[in-house]
Design brief:
mainly alpha; peptidoglycan lytic transglycosylase activity; PGBDSf; MltB-like; 394 residues; Helicase, Ruva Protein, domain 3
């Protein structure tokens, strides 16, 4: 089950949980569709293409139901990573990299993105191209474009879908994907498809559904555009000491690796750190849980999907493909709050005047920032992760 439409996060358009409130559609779908057809034709898309593509398109209430009920990741990193980096994905991902080694090598030479990273996204987004979705894309996009909640965004995506047909990249019957319009083996929304897709198998069209060469190279193209640095790390597991300046451990605080070493951070076996450059110390479950140095390439992965849990799990899976071992559980048992307790925590933080826009039970970066501020006020270790002790004090 998809935890979130990652392609929407690709474009930075997914609204916050507070914006998920119901709204009421009061217009007429067919009238709206006729108006859209005129707009599409006026934009330069041939009228016969528009009419043929949107012929008999109907409003789909099941898509609206999915849109209203979507959830972000409520699992901890260890729970989510164990599910996603399972033995099936590890075994099959390694096999895919061996079978397609020449393709991956060619992509890395051109775009700088290594096989483990591309394979991790390939595994998570579509089970290596096996599960790309069975929803009619044009019907889903038209429904969401008409809908009152995010009509402007999906209006643009529907236009891009028609332009993909106009370019000859994809035919109408092939336009099947996820409920929010994501297409292909790497689940690109139409605007990202138009902007970043490449024809890598040389057949004259950019086919992200059937061509793994096109799909993988297009993912690499997107990551390079987002700032991927060739031959640089993305996420490296480390071991943290029992005590240090925990307030430094946040994604927005990159320090030279040598400074992390001075704080007592070591590699997972306790030896001195061997990497260089600047990195943030990422503690997805606080000071007692797993620890990672997050390099600038991890910021690029967060642009693919803004969920820290998803992106950390994708980066961890990529590291496993690159030869890293199974993640450590950390230095001590972790007191995990329930979803209901996190919602209560968020309400209390908001009542203190702190910025918490979503009461959703998810410990995201905004909640972590608020927690860190209160931890500092309470003279607690300010690692930004709310454990049971903090919850009870609050």
């Amino acid at each position: 089950m998809r935890h979130i439409t990652s392609a929407l996060l690709l474009s930075g358009s997914l609204l916050s949980g507070s914006a998920l409130a119901e709204c009421q559609n009061t217009g007429n779908f067919q009238q709206w569709l006729n108006s859209f057809k005129h707009q599409a034709t006026a934009s330069g898309i041939p009228a016969n293409l528009v009419n043929n593509a949107l012929h008999n398109i109907q409003y789909d209430p099941s898509v609206i139901e999915l849109d209203r009920s979507q959830n972000t990741v409520s699992q901890t990193f260890l729970q989510y990573a164990a599910n996603k980096a399972n033995s099936y994905r590890l075994t099959n991902g390694q096999r895919k990299m061996r079978e397609d080694r020449p393709l991956f090598q060619r992509i890395e030479r051109q775009f700088g993105v290594p096989a483990p990273v591309l394979t991790a996204y390939w595994a998570l987004e579509s089970d290596f191209g096996n599960v790309t979705g069975n929803v009619q894309t044009l019907r889903a996009l038209a429904t969401l474009a008409y809908d009152c909640r995010r009509g402007s965004f999906f209006h643009n995506e529907l236009m891009h879908a028609l332009r993909l047909i106009q370019r000859g990249d994809i035919k109408v019957p092939e336009m099947m994907g996820a409920w929010a319009g994501e297409l292909g083996q790497l689940q690109f929304i139409p605007s990202s498809y138009n902007k970043h897709a490449v024809d890598y198998d040389g057949d004259g069209r950019r086919d992200l559904i059937h061509s793994r060469a096109d799909a993988l190279a297009s993912a690499a193209s997107l990551l390079r555009q987002y700032g991927w640095q060739s031959r640089q790390p993305w996420l490296v597991e480390v071991k943290v000491p029992v005590q240090m300046n925990w307030a430094l451990a946040r994604l927005g605080k990159k320090l030279p690796v040598a400074q992390w070493a001075k704080q007592g951070v070591t590699d997972v076996s306790g030896r001195p750190l061997r990497t260089s450059g600047n990195a943030a110390l990422l503690l997805p479950m606080g000071r007692n849980g797993p620890a990672f140095l997050a390099y600038p390439n991890f910021d690029v992965m967060l642009r693919w999907n803004k969920s820290t849990v998803y992106s950390t799990s994708a980066a961890y899976l990529a590291s496993r493909y690159a030869g890293a071992g199974q993640v450590r559980y950390g230095n001590a048992p972790i007191q995990v709050l329930s979803v209901a307790q996190v919602k209560q925590l968020q309400s209390k933080l908001r009542a203190r005047g702190l910025r918490v826009t979503k009461i959703d039970g998810i410990i995201g970066e905004e909640t972590r920032r608020a927690v860190r501020l209160v931890q500092q006020q309470m003279r607690l270790p300010a690692d930004g992760y709310p454990d049971l002790t903090f919850f009870q004090k609050l």
